[in-house]
Automatic annotation (TrEMBL):
Keywords noted in UniProt: Hydrolase, Signal
Gene Ontology MF, one: beta-lactamase activity
First and last residue of the signal peptide: 1-19
The protein, known as: Beta-lactamase class A
């Protein structure tokens, strides 16, 4: 082949490659969805990251998806993994009876309102941690899982380099001061929940039970509120003054997808439904649904917002 012919071939090849979706490993970047998310996030008064992966097509969209964000109550997902790892090893039992002590109290949630010596099954405390986001119960389970250091070892051993429990964990004081109870990236938190969905966290049986817990959510007024009520969803949300977050697997008609959105350094710290972070979570959830389900356009029932938590 002559030099001019080679140059022409390379030019055509380069043009062909540049016209293809940008690949990252075994995934392919969804440029259209990425652009929609970038537009939605523009102008937010704080920092925000989003990660989306369609579990059927493996197409992804990511905006600041590898930056660190506070987990807030999303940290309860890795705590749950730590507990089930202990169960799988036979060190504790799923239905063993626990005895609550006043010394465990952190706040006035459900578990924190128990009388001293109240008996409750471990399985019910896990349920309260995930569905109600009970803080006292979560800290109790964190300790039973071996503490934050043990949970972090599990995370590290399963490929999660950035997701960590900070609170009550030796060596994590600086991270706790910056990020609170836990720290993660949108990509890692989404992929952790996807791992549970795919039966690969701890064991297939443990993953199945954990996924059932994630499907029972009391706090459904943000991302979940923008999805049809007859669609199966597994989720966990989190919120502190300066940060709002949520991770979901959505069993959409044309294929499951997982996404996580997280904020930090928010200017708007009001605990109101129109908080800028809450509003952005709802907006992003609606955009993703519409993108993957263009023929199943849906919007919340008129007046339903008065029933959102």
């Amino acid at each position: 082949m002559t030099r001019p012919a080679i140059l022409l071939f390379l030019t055509l090849l380069t043009g062909t490659l540049s016209a293809q979706p940008q690949a990252t490993g075994k995934t392919v970047v969804d440029q259209k969805l990425t652009a929609q998310l970038e537009a939605a996030l523009a102008g937010f008064h704080g920092r925000v990251g989003v990660y989306v992966r369609n579990l059927k097509t493996n197409r992804i969209a990511a905006v600041n998806a590898d930056s660190l964000y506070p987990t807030a109550s999303m940290v309860k997902v890795p705590i749950m993994c730590g507990i089930f790892d202990k169960i799988e090893k036979g060190e504790i039992a799923f239905n063993q009876e626990l005895v609550y002590r006043d010394s465990l109290k952190y706040d006035n949630g459900i578990v924190g309102s128990f009388r001293d010596s109240t008996k409750i099954a471990l399985s019910k405390v896990v349920h309260l941690m995930i569905s109600q986001s009970d803080n006292t119960g979560s800290l109790w389970l964190q300790a039973m899982a071996g503490g934050g250091a043990t949970i972090n070892q599990w995370l590290d051993g399963n490929g999660f380099a950035n997701t960590r429990v900070n609170s009550r964990t030796p060596g994590r004081k600086e991270f706790q001061a910056r990020y609170g109870w836990g720290v993660t990236t949108p990509r890692e938190m989404a992929e952790l929940v996807a791992m549970i969905r795919n039966g690969k966290a701890v064991s297939p049986a443990a993953s199945d039970r954990m996924y059932r817990y994630l499907g029972m959510q009391f706090w459904d007024g943000e991302a979940i509120s923008q999805l049809p009520s007859n669609v199966k969803i597994a989720a966990k949300s989190g919120a502190v003054n300066q940060a709002k977050s949520e991770v979901l697997v959505v069993h959409a008609p044309h294929g499951d997808y997982v996404f996580c959105i997280a904020t930090k350094d928010q200017e708007d710290q009001r605990w109101q439904k129109d908080n800028e972070g809450y509003a952005l979570i709802r907006k992003v959830s609606a955009i993703i649904w519409k993108h993957f389900e263009p023929k199943n356009e849906w919007k919340p029932v008129e007046g339903s917002e008065k029933f959102w938590f």
